[in-house]
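note to self: the first set is below, dont mix up w the second
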Amino acid sequence: MTERILIVDDHPLTRDALSGLLEQNGFDVVAEAASGIEAVDAAAELQPDLVLLDLTMPHMDGLTALPKIRAAAPDAEVVVLTASEDETNLLGAIRAGAAGYLLKSEPPEQIVSFLRGVAKGEAALSGAVARRLLDQVREGDVRPTVPDAVAHALTARELEVLLLLDRHLGTDEIAQRLFISEHTVRSHVKSLLAKLGVSSRREALEKLNPR
């Protein structure tokens, strides 16, 4: 299935370059927009699968436009593509429902790879900002000790999911915290249950909190 994508950036050269790159790699660029206002209108009319969104634009910036785009096109995944590594922008975009946060310094082939991943339900996060996001996710989440049997059995991401389950977060909340899809959260839970040899989340938490 060819993913239909809307490109939003106030620089014509950037839009042209992205359009050419994505078309060459099998995406269907259905429209380009130069502002947040244009993006919301285009998203409502065209219902794209993906929206590639700049943050700094006239009339309506990307962070303001993002929730409006999601409301106008509920099935579209919005990926921010920006030069900003600002933590406020990063967290603001995630809270507004972005499926990815990419830097314009990424190699073109990496942008294509990230977008293909988003189309499959994966997250897209540039390495330069990944650590900042992870630090925010882990703030208050890291336990002083984790049983060795648990730590050795699970991947880092599975352990993160388990720690968030321990904080009584639901699947949707964990997905938002870890910037992944709910389907991916459920897959991690299924995997960690199997690795810990238990059949329920409650039993997994008992492994994490042995009496």
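second set (the one i keep forgetting abt)
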Amino acid sequence: MTPAARLQAAIEVLDEVIASARDEGPPADAIVTRYFRHRRYAGSKDRRAVRELVFRAIRRSAERPQSGRAAALGLAEDEPALLELLGEPRGPASLRNGEQAARPSLIPEWLVPEVSPLVTKDEWTALLERAPLDLRVNAAKGSRDELLKQFPGGEPTPISPWGIRLPADSRIDDHPAFESGLVEIQDEGSQLIALACEAKGDQRIIDLCAGAGGKALALAAVAPSARILATDSNRARLAKLAPRAERAGTAIETRLLNPPRELGELADWRGEADLVLVDAPCSGSGTWRRNPEGRWRLARERLERLAAAQERLLDTAAELVRPGGALVYAVCSLLSREGAGQIERFLERHSSWISQEAAIAAGRSDGAGRLLTPAHDHTDGFFIARLCRPC
């Protein structure tokens, strides 16, 4: 492919990404893969070049562009050499009079008032920087010091005792340590959520929004004798846990739930859990450095729905915790409504509950919890709070 053809391909991919973000379709990575599945003539260098153009354009604009061409023209404002490709054979059409390019921005304008005041404008750039690849060592099967020897260029994560940090472009899906369950891919911030749970002994633990089970696996690694129930409302995501648990050499129960009937479907656990983890569905604003197109997918109406779901899940979790037990709430979000504000409202509804300091040496105090951010902690953005039900 010529440079002009690569730019045209990027525009076509961006058109699909924009439509998918609007209609809550597949993510950009999947769209890039699908695009080239039907274009076998494109070599690995072509695919890499197009992908880089696509993601540079996505990172540049917080607001969803009108079209892939507008996104590419915005990129060309920063990279004038791209303008020379317009009008070339197999490339994009020549520039037209009055044609508008996508504006550069880091956070959607409507969302700025929602961002935690701890995240100052000086920190905004870090929200879109390339993220490293973090691994979590399976503490039940090996030690970090030993496993570090298997990952040249790796280094211990600064906060999590289980973490290994690799360069951003590292691949480990065929690494022997991954295939044998010695490590899992997990951002250090996610590992700190598991650390805040303080799982131990023969506790009864519910991971209420387990997804594919990353945090349930982390809890099982540090408390192998605990009884852990991983639940979720997404069958496809929850189904991924079983093979991961087998690879890790652990046993985790699973249960598919049907919102909003979770409490009835967990009647046998009501008031029995020593710990309930609520890693709630959220805006994902803390993971923009990995998923920059997430800014294009978020709208006011969706944020309202997410906040309502978080409130309902917190109230459900409160009914499952035994007297003296704990509830850990986490969201990969930098928005006050989903973090500190959500816990403030929970404590208003459940005035006898007590907030506890999370056992993590990271983040900054944010209401009744702690906020981790890419600039301050070099992790994805997370809000974490630990609450205790009185005896």
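remember for set 2: The longest strand covers residues 321-331.
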